[in-house]
């Protein structure tokens, strides 16, 4: 599949049936798998042979869908997780433990910010947050001797900042650590971070990849490009024997597959954030049309952003594909096909006007969700970001009047008419 274009990978990647086998990916709804002898089974536990034994660790349906996303991103190995939160937690915890440090962009998704700044801090992992627009000097100054990774989002949710992936990759590699990119909003249809130097990519597949609001899920993809063994002392988890697996050294035994192998063998075994095979099947249905849907989401996003920008009751609009956007140049470079369908804007009159406006929308439903076939909207300051104080809100790029509108796949004229009538009522 690697020679095919992204559209072909969306439709046919990850699974090629043989003669007489199901055309669609089969849902292997089985917790466990049968073996003839204890010896056969023992080899699996010793990581001597590969094969399925328990769906908490691996399941064939989930693996086929992970393989498709891996091909779409141009990666070496991938795994599905039960949510985007689990994907980002595993992606960091696989290489950073108590006493370690991570550099992250300050405009990341509120749920990820909470995971990093509150929950993982309790586990002894420190994060330094830098604005995505920082200079190279400011970025380099954030590193410490115990820094183990750099983390950012291609297009931040909901701030919609566009990350200069090459700038972040350069700094990460200068300090001998990998760059992890959450590529949820762009999807590999619009941006493939490995082509710009990222080492690991994560996804909340709950968003555009599923695209129909049907199944929560996540994914981690490894490019296989980061040389763990060249930095043995920095990454002992990958480069020294694992006592919980008979002294295996992942980076020696599994080479380019070491990172995903360890995340499966250790983290999935111990934390068990496994997706259901049924959910993986639904995700695959979404992936089959991702390239068609992304184009329409972007088309609707741009039409709506242009309408809002010209409207007198709108204070400001953030959408990277608008010429007026400070991220327009970065978007042209990293997202030439368009960014996404999510538009952020401020309603004149602040928080109360924003809430009133949203109440009058008919097509756009109020949901803590984005990237769905159906248009939806949210007031982050009173929902997803409400645990943040004012300073953190500003750092995250979320003001009190911010409305996040996720343009679906409806007709753009209908969406604009709905916005127009709701604006008239404030
Ligand atoms: C939604 C989201 C997450 C969290 O994903 P869940 O599937 O809701 O757990 C992580 N990162 C980004 C960019 C998101 O939009």
Q: Sheet with the most strands? A: 7 strands, mixed
Low-confidence stretches: none
* Global mean pLDDT: 95
> Helical percent range?
25-40%
Distance between the termini: 53 Å
Number of helices: 17
Write a structural description:
- The protein is an alpha/beta fold.
- Helix content is 38%, strand content 13%.
- It has 17 helices and twelve strands.
- The chain starts with 5 loop residues before the first helix and ends with a helix.
- The mean pLDDT is 95.
- The structure holds pyridoxal-5'-phosphate.
- The site of pyridoxal-5'-phosphate has 16 residues, from helix 4 and helix 5.
Describe, in short, the structure shown.
With 426 residues, the protein is of the alpha/beta class. It has helices at 6-12, 38-45, 60-73, 84-93, 110-122, 136-141, 165-174, 187-190, 236-239, 250-254, 258-271, 277-288, 290-309, 328-334, 350-359, 390-395, 412-424; strands at residues 77-81, 101-105, 126-130, 147-153, 179-182, 200-204, 218-222, 314-318, 342-347, 365-366, 376-378, 402-406.
Architecture blueprint of SSEs:
Layout: H1 6-12, H2 38-45, H3 60-73, E1 77-81, H4 84-93, E2 101-105, H5 110-122, E3 126-130, H6 136-141, E4 147-153, H7 165-174, E5 179-182, H8 187-190, E6 200-204, E7 218-222, H9 236-239, H10 250-254, H11 258-271, H12 277-288, H13 290-309, E8 314-318, H14 328-334, E9 342-347, H15 350-359, E10 365-366, E11 376-378, H16 390-395, E12 402-406, H17 412-424
Parallel strand pairs: 2-3, 2-4, 4-5, 5-6, 10-11
Antiparallel strand pairs: 1-7, 6-7, 8-9, 9-12, 11-12
This protein binds pyridoxal-5'-phosphate.
